[in-house]
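Q: I have 225 residues here and want to know how they pack in 3D. Can you give me a structure?
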Amino acid sequence: MNWIFPYIALMIWVVDAQEINVVVSAKGEVEVLQWNEQKKVIQVPVSMRNAEVIWAIRNLLKTKPPNTSLNIIERLEVFDKYWPIKVFVNKKPAYMEDGIIHCYIRERRMSSTEEIKIKDELLRLFVLRQVGQWEETLELLIPHITFRRNKNKPYIVQRRKESICFDKKLYDLSLGTIAYCLFNAVADYVGLKDGFRKELINQHFPTWKTLEKNISYAYATYDNH
């Protein structure tokens, strides 16, 4: 598989007697693309100053990042499938783009604590984006979105608190199933009329019957009827 990045320039720098390929990109972060004895390649933002680039390179030379091509070092199981990982040089929240999870890992291997943290970050980002889209579509505002472990229900609507609380482990479901959960949570919160609700479900979730089964299997007391 060929990985395509939005490169706009490539330079060869020599820092502390080490030859480094520096890719200047429109992307906003420093990332290691390759780092081994044969070749060292990093990607830096176009706005980064030379002194900052040198500092980043020296830091990498000191910390010896993983020996890997494109820095995809392992896979992460989340949202009911395995995804390749691309590791940040600097610490920042995880996100998903073009089927790849971009995240920060302290060591070469991901710890169980880091795995949970990354899953939490990915779920939170997905939930906030999806709920935000429904807020815009339905012209409403849900002031508070919270997360806690709930083995029995994927979400709890708390109208008095102006809040929806989602199960922290929704990330075990597929993205499609989670998206369906999020719609139902918003629909329950606003009290969407049955006719309009069914119309939106048929339009956006044509496989809703299968999605209902997935949720019912994961949550014993789930009932959306």
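Q: Anything worth noting?
A: Residues 1-8, 66-72 have pLDDT under 50 and may be disordered. DSSP finds five helices and twelve strands in the chain.
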